[in-house]
Design a protein that fits this description.
By secondary structure, this protein is of the alpha/beta class. It folds into three domains: 155 residues, Rossmann fold; 38 residues; 121 residues. The chain contains 15 helices and five strands. Helix 7 crosses helix 8 and helix 8 crosses helix 9.
Length: 336
């Protein structure tokens, strides 16, 4: 199975597997929806495939077990149920998995998704396993925030920065999944090179609508910022009935990511790199922001949002972080 945009990485990994030079630890980086998890799953199948055809056949028992999530030679580590991060107990389970060895003699694979969510204790424990790799064990880590990973962990991995797929590749994938041509083109543009995100848009129309609304709100704020608006937006995202603190933090990070996308769209328009909008409904607002904001201010706005995201990942107070970020953006806005 070829992953849109990642064909070169797949080819390299398959050749390394055939030569016996595949790294014991790979770190896949890139924005959400670009294919990091799919590539990690593909690599696990590559190690367990019984067909020996240079890539996972998809039909043998090893490939099917990986696809179904039932393989005894695959350990998948995600954030906890309450999205509070990856705990030391989860890494201890990984160490137990490694110590047992494979019943079939196959390569065993540990996949750690969102590795930047490792707690300090968990990261230290995982580092020991990376420094002293067990025989026939492969690690695959994924992250959309490589800077948030300890440098010691990054240095023990071969890093693969996954590239965005072309709009035509994403649109073709969506058409294969059943989307009409016009919808495929619209969702491909909105996904901006991220096949996984495009498929989610197709399957979850409410997600697409939510992201469009968030982009519209961000652009409206950039056009007419106010302390009252900043407080209202921060309050709405900093508390929600029935959500854990971890879920609230994740939602706040997603919000900042969408605001960052809106700022960069305006910046690309401003410098003449790309006079287009990700969402059809926001084209006019992107053009207005690009016309009113100066390039240095848009760059400064992007940096402010990035720093706010870093503070949230370091357990900064959600509401205060968002309020501070939005208030600082207002100071950068042009006089209207």
């Amino acid at each position: 199975m070829k992953l849109a945009g990642q064909e070169d990485v797949q080819s390299y990994l398959a050749q390394a597997q055939a030569r016996g030079t595949l790294p014991h630890a790979c770190l896949f980086t890139g924005p959400g929806g670009v294919g990091k998890r799919s590539l990690a799953r593909w690599l696990a199948a590559l190690g367990l495939c019984q067909a020996a055809v240079g890539q996972p056949c998809g039909t043998c028992s090893g490939c099917r077990a990986v696809a179904l999530g039932t393989s005894a030679d695959l350990c998948w580590v995600d954030r906890g149920a309450e999205r509070q991060g990856i705990s030391i107990n989860q890494v201890r389970q990984v160490q137990d998995f490694i110590s047992l060895g494979s019943l079939s003699g196959s390569v065993r694979t540990v996949i750690v998704t969102d590795a930047h969510e490792l707690s300090a204790e968990a990261a230290n424990a995982l580092l020991k396993s990376l420094e002293e790799p067990a025989e026939q064990v492969r690690f695959c880590l994924t992250t959309s925030a490589p800077r948030a990973l300890p440098a010691t962990i990054r240095s023990r991995c071969s890093v693969f920065n996954l590239r965005l797929a072309s709009a035509s590749q994403v649109a073709a994938l969506l058409r294969t999944a059943g989307a009409p041509a016009a919808q495929a083109s619209e969702l491909a543009a909105a996904a901006a090179g991220r096949p996984g995100l495009a498929l989610r848009f197709l399957r979850e129309p409410e997600l697409y609508s939510t992201r469009v609304a968030a982009s519209q709100e961000a652009l409206a704020y950039l056009l007419q910022p106010s302390w009252t608006s900043a407080q209202a937006i921060a309050a709405r995202f900093a508390s929600a009935e029935g959500e854990t603190s971890g879920e609230i933090r994740v939602r706040a990070l997603e919000l900042l990511s969408l605001w960052s996308e809106a700022v960069f769209e305006a910046l690309r328009w401003r410098v003449g790199y790309e006079k287009a909008a990700r969402y059809q409904a926001t084209r006019d607002a992107v053009q207005l922001v690009a016309g009113r904001w100066r390039k240095p201010n848009l760059l400064a706005a992007a940096q402010l949002i990035a720093k706010a995201g870093d503070r949230l990942r370091q357990n900064g107070h959600v509401r205060l972080t968002l309020e501070s970020c939005f208030a600082s953006l207002a100071l950068l806005a042009p006089d209207l």
